[in-house]
Amino acid sequence: MSYAHDRAYTAEESARYRILVEAITDYAVYMLDPAGIITSWNAGAQRFKGYKPEEIIGEHFSRFYTEEDRARDLPARALGISAREGKFEAEGWRVRKDGTRFWAHVVIDPIRDARGELVGFAKVTRDLTERKETQEALKRTEQQFRLLVQGVTDYAIYLLSPEGIVTNWNAGAQRIKGYAPDEIIGEHFSRFYTEADRLAGMPQKALETAIREGRFENEGWRVRKDGTRFWSHVIIDPIRDDYGELVGFAKITRDITERKNSQETLERAREALFQSQKMDAVGQLTGGVAHDFNNLLMAILGSLELLKKRMPADPGLLRLLDNAMLGARRGATLTQRMLAFARRQELDVQPLELPGLVAGMRDLLASSIGPGAEIRTEFPPGLGAVVGDENQVELALLNLCVNARDAMPEGGTIRIGAREELLGAGNSQGLRPGHYVCLSVSDTGEGMDPDTLARATEPFFTTKGVGKGTGLGLSMVHGMAEQMGGRLMLKSVSGKGTTAEIWLPAVEGDAMAGSPEIKNAATAAVAGKMRVLAVDDDRLVLFNTTAMLEDLGHEVVEAGCGEEALGHLEKSGFDLLITDQAMPRMTGVQLLEIVRDRWPGLPAILATGYAEIPGGVQVATPKLSKPFTEQELAQALTSVRRRPA
Ligand SMILES: Nc1ncnc2c1ncn2[C@@H]1O[C@H](COP(=O)(O)OP(=O)(O)OP(=O)(O)O)[C@@H](O)[C@H]1O
Ligand SMILES: [Mg+2]
Fold first, then answer.
1. End-to-end CA distance of the chain
2. What does the mean pLDDT of the chain come to?
3. What is the pLDDT of residues 373-424, one digit of tens each?
4. What angle do CA 151, 156, 157 make, to 5 degrees?
């Protein structure tokens, strides 16, 4: 706009311009004389600045400037620039009549007369306060938003083009996926997927779902820059412009590997608890059944033994009898295993040196395993002793070696080794804190799949087919290890082999002093007839014990319970008391306590298939494991006799 007067306006034209200018309310349009004095004022000026024409005409325009701008002589400089360069244009703060400020866009044009002489200035001002505020607010929120998104480190938040190209990248994305922004912007997002998912077209499907359903959400494996995987939760939202056109996708990814891991750990712990509860329940059942069977078998075996002695020498009958005894003994072995699993085995716990124990078993192991497999033993020098029952540990080792051989039908090497372990409180093995020796048997056989491994210690679980395996081998080892305060642990990989470990508590300090028990007693016939009080609540067993004792030449008085036994003791004298442990109302141990009190000199034997002699009760009485043979009974009698009363 130029206000230079190229020609003279008619009076009518001038009047029309004046009306026009004065009517404008969106712009302040007014004139200054060359010195900056206001000479005209329109409606817009009045509206923005608050002055009426009569208040402001004749005043200097610098009053619209802020204090600071006036101090910098800005008003005069603006006029100078306008006069010199033909135009001054700027944005800045201006002051209203009431002292408030507004953001103004200002143009000052010089006005010259026909001769080019400066006669004044035309000034046009617009109030941009509102626009500036909206712009600034927008800028602020955009900036805040950017800072927010950029700063989030727990979530990868980034944008994709409609084709799936990464267009921006936040701190979380960098942290979780490992790429710096300049490495990844411009790349296709499918590189975050696993190879298999990429080949299955998952990235494209995700975008398609987001377009079709307005959102895509799932969990899955994603790959970091270094190739490692993480379990992620992903959301993809399509972004559309005002016309509904797809302009890209917003993608939010969270690394929930940890959550997944802790969930899985919890699941495993729950599974382990369930497993141990199941084993306990099965143990209770098995133990109960085995206990009863044990008594029955004892009666059968005992009677058969006596029958054999008294029978006429007929080879035909003898063969039948031997066969029956063999069957009964096999049954007894089975019930022993079941009792071991149920942790109701009679244990003779003492310090054991494992290398010596294994060396002593070499021949037995070699003959049980046969020529196919070779046994190697590797023990570290100075291995500590364990606390355990020698026979049971031997039986357990034999079972493990037989399993190892069965797993290697083509032959191979069975390694027996041991190492010491120190477990702290809250160890993952669930064992009491302390020193352990871990006896291991490893094979390189067929191994077990996870299902078989999970069930291997269950009683009667076998994969060996009818008549081949009883499924009690590992059950026995498991129960025995637990009863000794240790644990059986199985590690196996299908096709690779199995390692079975028996953890046994190590001897703490010098506890190598044990007391010789019945097992060391010399086999000897009983010299001299005794008067024996036999106590058992099971009539069959009692009958059997009595028959054996009588066969050995003794006189027997029977009692069906502890109370009855005490009654007999009060009435007459005895040379020996032999009592069952598991009886209702009064157990064998309780009976023995009373007897020791009132008849301190009376020798006694505790016969039991139940190991459940209450903890803390020191039973000095010799023990006899059920079922026992006549010979074992005879040994027990001898050892009792040799003991000082
Ligand atoms: N070393 C091993 N390698 C592969 N599988 C094994 C091994 N040890 C045990 N198993 C699996 O565990 C099952 C149970 O073993 P366990 O010793 O309790 O019973 P079994 O060997 O089948 O029968 P038994 O020991 O009474 O003769 C086996 O049938 C087999 O499937
Ligand atoms: Mg077995």
1. 135
2. 86
3. 999 999 988 888 999 988 889 889 999 999 999 999 999 999 999 999 988 8
4. 75
Contact 57, 41 (CB under 8 A): yes
Tell me the angle at which helices 630-642 and 539-551 cross, rounded to the nearest 10 degrees. Answer: 70
Per residue in 497-548, pLDDT tens? 999 999 999 987 543 333 333 222 222 333 478 899 999 998 888 988 998 8
The CA distance from 327 to 504, in Å, is: 33
Residue 431 carries which side chain, given as an amino acid letter?
A: L
Ligand 1 pocket (Cβ < 6 Å) reads 399, 403-404, 407, 443, 445-448, 452, 456, 461-464, 469-475, 498
Within 10 angstroms of residue 482's Cβ, the number of other Cβ atoms is 19
**CA 474/CA 488 separation, integer angstroms:** 9
pTM: 0.48
User: What's the pLDDT tens digit per position in 316-356?
Assistant: 888 889 889 988 888 888 888 788 777 777 778 889 999 99
Closest to 518 measured CA to CA, from 348, 330, 354:
348
Q: Whose CA is nearest to atom 4 of ligand 1?
A: 447
Instruction: Answer positive or negative: Cα dihedral of 330, 334, 340, 344.
Output: negative
Each residue's pLDDT tens digit, 572-597: 889 899 999 888 899 999 999 999 89
Question: What ligand 1 atom has the least distance to the C-alpha of 457?
Answer: 18
Of 225 and 274, which is predicted with more confidence? 225
3-state secondary structure 118-130: EEEEEEEEEECHH
Tokens 């390189």 belong to which residue? 444
CA-closest residue to ligand 1 atom 7: 403
Measured in Å, residue 339 CA sits from the centre of ligand 2 at 16
- CA of 460 relative to ligand 1 center, distance in Å: 10
Q: List, edge to edge, every strand of the sheet that includes 604-608.
A: 555-559, 531-535, 576-580, 604-608, 623-625
DSSP 188: B
**DSSP label of 166:** B
- Distance from the CA of 457 to the center of ligand 1, in angstroms? 8
**Which residue's alpha carbon is at the smallest distance from atom 20 of ligand 1?**
471
The confidence score (pLDDT) of residue 18 equals 79
- Backbone phi, psi, residue 168, to 5°: -155, 175
**Side by side, which strands form the sheet with 434-443?**
373-378, 412-423, 434-443, 497-505, 487-493
Tokens 């034999």, residue located:
398
